[in-house]
Amino acid sequence: MAAGHTFEPRILGFLCDWCCYAGADLAGVSRFQYPPNIRVIRLMCSGRVDPAHIFRAFSTGQDAVFIGGCHLDDCHYVTHGNYDALSMVYICKKLLEHIGLNPERLRIEWVSAGEGIRFANTMNEFVPRIEKLGPLGRGEGIDEHELTFKLEAVTKLIPYIKLVQSERLRVPDRTEEAYNKFFTSEEFNRLFNELIGDKLALSQIMALLRERPHSTSEISAILGLSPSEVSRHLNVSARNQTVETGTVDNDKIDRIINKHQGKAGSLVQVLLEIQHENHWLPQEVLDRVSKKLDVPLSRVMQIVTFHKTFSLIPKGRNEVHVCTGPSCYVRGSTRLLDTVQNLMGIRPGETDPDSKFSLETGSCLGCCNLGPEIIVGGKHHGRVTPDKVKDVLKNYE
Ligand code: FES
Ligand code: FES
Protein backbone atom coordinates (compact mmCIF):
# COMPACT_ATOMS: atom_id res chain seq x y z
CA MET A 1 0.00 0.00 0.00
CA ALA A 2 1.19 3.46 -0.77
CA ALA A 3 0.81 4.75 2.75
CA GLY A 4 2.58 8.01 2.02
CA HIS A 5 3.48 10.07 5.03
CA THR A 6 0.02 10.09 6.55
CA PHE A 7 -0.05 6.58 7.95
CA GLU A 8 1.40 6.37 11.45
CA PRO A 9 1.37 2.72 12.59
CA ARG A 10 0.04 2.00 16.05
CA ILE A 11 2.23 -0.60 17.71
CA LEU A 12 1.62 -2.20 21.08
CA GLY A 13 4.67 -3.52 22.91
CA PHE A 14 4.70 -6.10 25.70
CA LEU A 15 8.10 -5.78 27.35
CA CYS A 16 9.57 -7.92 30.11
CA ASP A 17 10.49 -5.77 33.08
CA TRP A 18 13.87 -7.37 33.70
CA CYS A 19 15.44 -6.99 30.27
CA CYS A 20 13.64 -5.47 27.31
CA TYR A 21 11.87 -2.76 29.29
CA ALA A 22 15.18 -1.78 30.86
CA GLY A 23 16.76 -1.87 27.37
CA ALA A 24 14.05 0.45 26.05
CA ASP A 25 14.62 2.73 29.04
CA LEU A 26 18.33 2.79 28.33
CA ALA A 27 17.65 3.68 24.70
CA GLY A 28 15.66 6.69 25.92
CA VAL A 29 18.21 7.80 28.50
CA SER A 30 21.01 7.40 25.96
CA ARG A 31 19.05 9.48 23.43
CA PHE A 32 19.14 6.72 20.80
CA GLN A 33 16.63 7.86 18.18
CA TYR A 34 13.72 5.65 17.10
CA PRO A 35 10.16 6.37 15.88
CA PRO A 36 7.71 7.00 18.74
CA ASN A 37 5.01 4.63 17.44
CA ILE A 38 5.20 2.02 20.18
CA ARG A 39 3.09 2.13 23.32
CA VAL A 40 4.42 -0.15 26.01
CA ILE A 41 2.85 -2.52 28.52
CA ARG A 42 5.37 -3.70 31.10
CA LEU A 43 5.15 -7.33 32.26
CA MET A 44 7.27 -9.34 34.65
CA CYS A 45 8.11 -11.90 31.94
CA SER A 46 7.44 -12.27 28.22
CA GLY A 47 5.93 -15.66 29.08
CA ARG A 48 2.94 -13.79 30.56
CA VAL A 49 1.78 -12.60 27.14
CA ASP A 50 -1.34 -14.50 26.19
CA PRO A 51 -2.67 -14.97 22.63
CA ALA A 52 -5.82 -13.19 23.88
CA HIS A 53 -3.72 -10.05 24.54
CA ILE A 54 -2.33 -10.12 21.03
CA PHE A 55 -5.66 -10.56 19.26
CA ARG A 56 -7.31 -8.01 21.54
CA ALA A 57 -4.63 -5.54 20.50
CA PHE A 58 -5.37 -6.21 16.84
CA SER A 59 -9.13 -6.07 17.43
CA THR A 60 -8.82 -2.67 19.07
CA GLY A 61 -6.95 -1.07 16.21
CA GLN A 62 -3.25 -1.79 16.70
CA ASP A 63 -1.39 -2.32 13.43
CA ALA A 64 1.35 -4.43 14.98
CA VAL A 65 2.37 -6.10 18.23
CA PHE A 66 5.90 -6.30 19.57
CA ILE A 67 7.02 -8.65 22.33
CA GLY A 68 10.39 -8.11 23.99
CA GLY A 69 11.95 -10.51 26.47
CA CYS A 70 15.25 -11.54 27.98
CA HIS A 71 17.57 -13.54 25.76
CA LEU A 72 16.71 -17.23 25.66
CA ASP A 73 18.11 -19.09 28.67
CA ASP A 74 18.40 -15.72 30.49
CA CYS A 75 14.75 -15.50 31.61
CA HIS A 76 14.65 -14.54 35.28
CA TYR A 77 12.19 -17.31 36.17
CA VAL A 78 12.70 -21.06 36.40
CA THR A 79 9.80 -21.53 34.01
CA HIS A 80 11.87 -20.05 31.14
CA GLY A 81 8.83 -18.05 30.11
CA ASN A 82 10.49 -16.67 26.99
CA TYR A 83 10.37 -20.13 25.41
CA ASP A 84 6.59 -20.15 26.00
CA ALA A 85 6.42 -16.70 24.44
CA LEU A 86 8.38 -17.95 21.44
CA SER A 87 6.08 -20.91 20.78
CA MET A 88 3.02 -18.70 21.31
CA VAL A 89 4.34 -16.20 18.75
CA TYR A 90 4.96 -18.96 16.20
CA ILE A 91 1.37 -20.16 16.64
CA CYS A 92 -0.11 -16.64 16.54
CA LYS A 93 1.84 -15.82 13.37
CA LYS A 94 0.35 -18.90 11.77
CA LEU A 95 -3.12 -17.81 12.91
CA LEU A 96 -2.58 -14.37 11.38
CA GLU A 97 -1.50 -15.97 8.13
CA HIS A 98 -4.59 -18.19 8.19
CA ILE A 99 -6.95 -15.23 8.39
CA GLY A 100 -5.12 -13.34 5.66
CA LEU A 101 -3.07 -10.93 7.81
CA ASN A 102 0.65 -10.47 7.37
CA PRO A 103 2.44 -12.43 10.13
CA GLU A 104 5.21 -9.80 10.17
CA ARG A 105 2.81 -7.65 12.16
CA LEU A 106 3.76 -9.72 15.17
CA ARG A 107 7.38 -9.71 16.24
CA ILE A 108 9.36 -11.08 19.17
CA GLU A 109 12.90 -10.01 20.05
CA TRP A 110 15.33 -10.64 22.86
CA VAL A 111 16.87 -7.45 24.27
CA SER A 112 18.93 -7.33 27.46
CA ALA A 113 18.95 -4.42 29.91
CA GLY A 114 22.26 -3.19 28.50
CA GLU A 115 21.17 -3.32 24.86
CA GLY A 116 19.52 0.06 24.45
CA ILE A 117 21.00 0.37 20.98
CA ARG A 118 19.56 -3.01 19.98
CA PHE A 119 16.08 -1.89 21.05
CA ALA A 120 16.39 1.35 19.09
CA ASN A 121 17.71 -0.47 16.01
CA THR A 122 14.86 -3.00 16.19
CA MET A 123 12.28 -0.20 16.28
CA ASN A 124 14.06 1.66 13.47
CA GLU A 125 13.60 -1.41 11.36
CA PHE A 126 10.16 -2.57 12.59
CA VAL A 127 8.22 0.70 12.34
CA PRO A 128 9.07 1.41 8.64
CA ARG A 129 8.24 -2.24 7.86
CA ILE A 130 4.75 -1.81 9.34
CA GLU A 131 4.38 1.56 7.60
CA LYS A 132 5.03 -0.25 4.36
CA LEU A 133 2.44 -2.93 5.16
CA GLY A 134 -0.18 -0.25 5.78
CA PRO A 135 -3.06 -0.22 8.28
CA LEU A 136 -4.13 -3.59 9.66
CA GLY A 137 -6.53 -5.27 7.25
CA ARG A 138 -6.59 -2.50 4.68
CA GLY A 139 -2.96 -3.25 3.90
CA GLU A 140 -3.96 -6.84 3.13
CA GLY A 141 -7.10 -5.91 1.17
CA ILE A 142 -9.49 -6.98 3.94
CA ASP A 143 -12.34 -4.62 4.74
CA GLU A 144 -13.13 -3.55 8.28
CA HIS A 145 -16.18 -5.75 8.69
CA GLU A 146 -14.41 -8.85 7.41
CA LEU A 147 -11.45 -8.10 9.66
CA THR A 148 -13.71 -7.87 12.71
CA PHE A 149 -15.32 -11.26 12.22
CA LYS A 150 -12.00 -12.93 11.34
CA LEU A 151 -10.39 -11.63 14.55
CA GLU A 152 -13.52 -12.61 16.49
CA ALA A 153 -13.34 -16.13 15.08
CA VAL A 154 -9.74 -16.48 16.31
CA THR A 155 -10.54 -14.95 19.70
CA LYS A 156 -13.32 -17.47 20.27
CA LEU A 157 -10.91 -20.34 19.68
CA ILE A 158 -8.15 -19.11 21.98
CA PRO A 159 -8.90 -21.40 25.00
CA TYR A 160 -8.87 -24.36 22.62
CA ILE A 161 -5.69 -23.16 20.89
CA LYS A 162 -3.92 -22.83 24.26
CA LEU A 163 -4.93 -26.35 25.10
CA VAL A 164 -3.57 -27.63 21.79
CA GLN A 165 -0.38 -25.64 22.41
CA SER A 166 0.18 -27.23 25.81
CA GLU A 167 -0.83 -30.77 24.88
CA ARG A 168 0.15 -31.29 21.25
CA LEU A 169 2.59 -28.57 20.24
CA ARG A 170 5.05 -28.82 23.08
CA VAL A 171 8.76 -28.93 22.19
CA PRO A 172 10.62 -31.29 24.56
CA ASP A 173 14.02 -29.52 24.37
CA ARG A 174 14.18 -25.96 25.62
CA THR A 175 16.72 -24.76 23.07
CA GLU A 176 16.33 -22.10 20.42
CA GLU A 177 17.41 -24.54 17.77
CA ALA A 178 14.81 -27.16 18.76
CA TYR A 179 12.02 -24.53 18.83
CA ASN A 180 12.94 -23.03 15.48
CA LYS A 181 13.30 -26.47 13.94
CA PHE A 182 9.91 -27.72 15.18
CA PHE A 183 7.91 -24.58 14.41
CA THR A 184 9.26 -24.37 10.86
CA SER A 185 8.79 -28.08 10.19
CA GLU A 186 6.26 -29.88 8.02
CA GLU A 187 5.14 -31.72 11.15
CA PHE A 188 4.09 -28.43 12.77
CA ASN A 189 2.23 -27.39 9.62
CA ARG A 190 0.43 -30.71 9.55
CA LEU A 191 -0.55 -30.55 13.23
CA PHE A 192 -1.63 -26.93 12.91
CA ASN A 193 -3.85 -27.65 9.92
CA GLU A 194 -5.27 -30.78 11.51
CA LEU A 195 -5.89 -29.43 14.99
CA ILE A 196 -6.44 -25.71 14.51
CA GLY A 197 -6.79 -24.83 10.81
CA ASP A 198 -10.05 -26.73 10.28
CA LYS A 199 -11.57 -25.37 13.48
CA LEU A 200 -10.58 -21.86 12.54
CA ALA A 201 -12.18 -22.19 9.12
CA LEU A 202 -15.36 -23.50 10.72
CA SER A 203 -15.31 -20.77 13.33
CA GLN A 204 -15.12 -18.14 10.57
CA ILE A 205 -17.93 -19.80 8.61
CA MET A 206 -20.14 -19.82 11.69
CA ALA A 207 -19.30 -16.18 12.47
CA LEU A 208 -20.50 -15.32 8.96
CA LEU A 209 -23.66 -17.41 9.23
CA ARG A 210 -24.55 -15.86 12.56
CA GLU A 211 -24.76 -12.48 10.86
CA ARG A 212 -27.08 -13.59 8.04
CA PRO A 213 -27.52 -16.56 5.69
CA HIS A 214 -24.75 -16.80 3.09
CA SER A 215 -24.51 -19.15 0.12
CA THR A 216 -21.57 -21.56 -0.11
CA SER A 217 -20.09 -19.53 -2.96
CA GLU A 218 -20.38 -16.28 -0.97
CA ILE A 219 -18.62 -17.90 1.99
CA SER A 220 -15.92 -19.35 -0.21
CA ALA A 221 -15.32 -15.94 -1.84
CA ILE A 222 -15.12 -14.13 1.51
CA LEU A 223 -12.89 -16.68 3.21
CA GLY A 224 -10.80 -17.67 0.20
CA LEU A 225 -11.78 -21.34 0.62
CA SER A 226 -12.94 -23.58 -2.20
CA PRO A 227 -16.71 -24.32 -2.24
CA SER A 228 -15.97 -28.00 -1.58
CA GLU A 229 -13.95 -27.09 1.51
CA VAL A 230 -16.83 -24.94 2.80
CA SER A 231 -19.26 -27.85 2.25
CA ARG A 232 -16.90 -30.27 3.98
CA HIS A 233 -16.67 -28.05 7.07
CA LEU A 234 -20.43 -27.60 7.19
CA ASN A 235 -21.06 -31.32 6.81
CA VAL A 236 -18.64 -32.23 9.56
CA SER A 237 -20.18 -29.60 11.79
CA ALA A 238 -23.72 -30.79 11.15
CA ARG A 239 -22.74 -34.43 11.64
CA ASN A 240 -20.98 -33.70 14.92
CA GLN A 241 -23.78 -31.43 16.07
CA THR A 242 -21.10 -29.19 17.45
CA VAL A 243 -21.77 -26.01 19.35
CA GLU A 244 -21.05 -23.89 16.32
CA THR A 245 -24.34 -24.99 14.81
CA GLY A 246 -26.11 -23.72 17.90
CA THR A 247 -27.22 -27.18 19.03
CA VAL A 248 -26.09 -26.98 22.63
CA ASP A 249 -29.21 -27.49 24.67
CA ASN A 250 -29.25 -24.33 26.79
CA ASP A 251 -32.34 -25.47 28.72
CA LYS A 252 -30.53 -28.58 29.84
CA ILE A 253 -27.48 -26.52 30.82
CA ASP A 254 -29.69 -24.10 32.79
CA ARG A 255 -31.42 -26.97 34.60
CA ILE A 256 -28.05 -28.29 35.73
CA ILE A 257 -26.94 -24.84 36.88
CA ASN A 258 -30.20 -24.17 38.75
CA LYS A 259 -30.01 -27.55 40.51
CA HIS A 260 -26.66 -26.66 42.09
CA GLN A 261 -26.91 -22.88 42.40
CA GLY A 262 -26.09 -21.60 45.87
CA LYS A 263 -24.61 -24.90 47.12
CA ALA A 264 -21.00 -25.29 48.22
CA GLY A 265 -18.79 -26.63 45.45
CA SER A 266 -21.51 -25.90 42.89
CA LEU A 267 -19.07 -24.80 40.19
CA VAL A 268 -17.24 -28.13 39.99
CA GLN A 269 -20.50 -30.10 40.23
CA VAL A 270 -22.10 -28.08 37.44
CA LEU A 271 -19.07 -28.51 35.20
CA LEU A 272 -18.91 -32.25 35.90
CA GLU A 273 -22.56 -32.75 35.03
CA ILE A 274 -22.34 -30.71 31.84
CA GLN A 275 -19.22 -32.61 30.83
CA HIS A 276 -21.09 -35.86 31.45
CA GLU A 277 -24.14 -34.76 29.42
CA ASN A 278 -22.43 -32.91 26.60
CA HIS A 279 -19.09 -34.80 26.50
CA TRP A 280 -17.16 -31.52 26.28
CA LEU A 281 -17.31 -27.90 27.43
CA PRO A 282 -17.72 -25.39 24.59
CA GLN A 283 -16.72 -21.77 25.20
CA GLU A 284 -20.30 -20.50 25.14
CA VAL A 285 -21.23 -22.99 27.86
CA LEU A 286 -18.32 -21.82 30.03
CA ASP A 287 -19.44 -18.21 29.54
CA ARG A 288 -22.98 -19.18 30.54
CA VAL A 289 -21.83 -21.03 33.68
CA SER A 290 -19.60 -18.11 34.70
CA LYS A 291 -22.44 -15.63 34.25
CA LYS A 292 -25.17 -17.64 35.90
CA LEU A 293 -23.08 -18.72 38.90
CA ASP A 294 -21.50 -15.26 39.09
CA VAL A 295 -18.00 -16.73 39.08
CA PRO A 296 -15.19 -15.07 37.08
CA LEU A 297 -14.49 -16.83 33.78
CA SER A 298 -10.81 -17.05 34.78
CA ARG A 299 -11.81 -19.24 37.76
CA VAL A 300 -13.91 -21.49 35.49
CA MET A 301 -10.98 -21.81 33.06
CA GLN A 302 -8.62 -22.57 35.94
CA ILE A 303 -10.73 -25.57 36.92
CA VAL A 304 -11.44 -26.95 33.46
CA THR A 305 -7.83 -26.71 32.35
CA PHE A 306 -6.52 -28.27 35.57
CA HIS A 307 -8.65 -31.40 35.83
CA LYS A 308 -8.21 -34.02 33.14
CA THR A 309 -11.89 -35.00 33.44
CA PHE A 310 -12.88 -31.88 31.53
CA SER A 311 -12.52 -31.50 27.81
CA LEU A 312 -12.46 -28.24 25.87
CA ILE A 313 -12.57 -30.04 22.57
CA PRO A 314 -15.47 -32.11 21.22
CA LYS A 315 -15.51 -35.71 22.41
CA GLY A 316 -17.27 -38.74 21.03
CA ARG A 317 -20.40 -40.19 22.61
CA ASN A 318 -18.29 -43.05 24.00
CA GLU A 319 -14.87 -42.52 25.50
CA VAL A 320 -12.52 -45.45 25.06
CA HIS A 321 -9.58 -45.76 27.47
CA VAL A 322 -6.97 -48.38 26.67
CA CYS A 323 -4.81 -49.21 29.67
CA THR A 324 -1.10 -48.94 28.96
CA GLY A 325 -0.05 -49.63 32.54
CA PRO A 326 2.70 -52.19 33.27
CA SER A 327 0.49 -55.27 33.84
CA CYS A 328 -1.60 -54.63 30.75
CA TYR A 329 1.56 -53.88 28.78
CA VAL A 330 3.04 -57.32 29.48
CA ARG A 331 -0.31 -58.85 28.56
CA GLY A 332 -0.36 -57.26 25.12
CA SER A 333 -1.92 -53.79 25.47
CA THR A 334 0.31 -52.44 22.67
CA ARG A 335 -1.21 -54.82 20.11
CA LEU A 336 -4.64 -54.11 21.53
CA LEU A 337 -4.14 -50.36 21.14
CA ASP A 338 -2.95 -50.82 17.54
CA THR A 339 -6.10 -52.79 16.76
CA VAL A 340 -8.37 -50.19 18.40
CA GLN A 341 -6.63 -47.39 16.46
CA ASN A 342 -7.08 -49.28 13.20
CA LEU A 343 -10.73 -50.05 13.86
CA MET A 344 -11.57 -46.45 14.76
CA GLY A 345 -9.14 -44.75 12.39
CA ILE A 346 -7.98 -42.36 15.11
CA ARG A 347 -5.05 -41.96 17.48
CA PRO A 348 -5.09 -41.30 21.24
CA GLY A 349 -6.46 -37.83 21.97
CA GLU A 350 -8.67 -37.86 18.85
CA THR A 351 -12.37 -38.29 18.10
CA ASP A 352 -13.72 -40.08 15.05
CA PRO A 353 -15.61 -38.07 12.39
CA ASP A 354 -18.97 -39.54 13.50
CA SER A 355 -18.33 -38.47 17.09
CA LYS A 356 -18.97 -42.04 18.11
CA PHE A 357 -15.67 -42.71 19.89
CA SER A 358 -12.86 -40.70 21.48
CA LEU A 359 -9.68 -42.60 22.20
CA GLU A 360 -7.46 -42.13 25.24
CA THR A 361 -4.70 -44.14 26.81
CA GLY A 362 -3.91 -44.17 30.49
CA SER A 363 -1.85 -45.84 33.15
CA CYS A 364 -3.28 -48.51 35.44
CA LEU A 365 -7.10 -48.58 35.41
CA GLY A 366 -7.17 -50.56 38.64
CA CYS A 367 -7.98 -54.13 37.53
CA CYS A 368 -4.53 -55.41 36.63
CA ASN A 369 -5.42 -59.10 36.97
CA LEU A 370 -8.01 -58.60 34.21
CA GLY A 371 -5.53 -57.04 31.76
CA PRO A 372 -5.32 -56.06 29.05
CA GLU A 373 -8.16 -53.81 30.00
CA ILE A 374 -10.22 -51.14 28.29
CA ILE A 375 -13.03 -48.89 29.47
CA VAL A 376 -15.71 -47.98 26.96
CA GLY A 377 -18.31 -45.40 27.94
CA GLY A 378 -17.50 -45.96 31.62
CA LYS A 379 -17.77 -49.79 31.47
CA HIS A 380 -14.71 -51.93 32.22
CA HIS A 381 -13.87 -54.78 29.84
CA GLY A 382 -11.15 -57.21 30.97
CA ARG A 383 -8.95 -59.70 29.12
CA VAL A 384 -9.70 -57.97 25.84
CA THR A 385 -7.60 -59.46 23.07
CA PRO A 386 -7.20 -57.78 19.67
CA ASP A 387 -9.64 -60.39 18.28
CA LYS A 388 -12.28 -59.65 20.89
CA VAL A 389 -12.18 -55.89 20.78
CA LYS A 390 -14.31 -55.63 17.64
CA ASP A 391 -17.15 -57.44 19.43
CA VAL A 392 -16.84 -55.07 22.38
CA LEU A 393 -16.96 -51.91 20.27
CA LYS A 394 -19.87 -52.97 18.08
CA ASN A 395 -22.21 -52.74 21.09
CA TYR A 396 -21.79 -48.97 21.22
CA GLU A 397 -23.68 -46.43 19.15
S1 FES B 1 11.94 -12.52 32.81
FE1 FES B 1 12.38 -11.67 30.89
S2 FES B 1 11.56 -13.08 29.55
FE2 FES B 1 11.19 -13.99 31.45
S1 FES C 1 -2.01 -52.03 34.41
FE1 FES C 1 -3.82 -52.07 33.28
S2 FES C 1 -5.32 -52.18 34.80
FE2 FES C 1 -3.49 -52.07 35.94
What does this structure look like?
52% of the residues lie in helices and 10% in strands. By secondary structure, the protein is α/β, with parallel strands linked by helices. The strands form 2 sheets. The protein has a 4-stranded parallel sheet, sandwiched between helices. Helix 8 crosses helix 9. About 2% of the residues have low confidence. One FE2/S2 (inorganic) cluster (FES) binds next to helix 3.
Give helix % range. Answer: 40-55%
Architecture per CATH nomenclature, i.e. the level-2 architecture of the domain at 11-140: 3-Layer(aba) Sandwich
Main β-sheet description = 4 strands, parallel
- Overall average pLDDT: 87
Please tell me what the overall shape is: globular
Number of helices: 16
Write the H/E string, N to C: EHEHEHEHHHHHHHHHHEHHEEEH
Sheet with the most strands: spatial strand order: 2-1-3-4
Task: Tell me the structural class.
Answer: alpha/beta
Please give the CATH class of the domain at 11-140: Alpha Beta
Number-wise, the strands total: 8
Low-confidence runs: 241-246
Strand content: 5-15%
CATH topology of the domain at 11-140: Rossmann fold
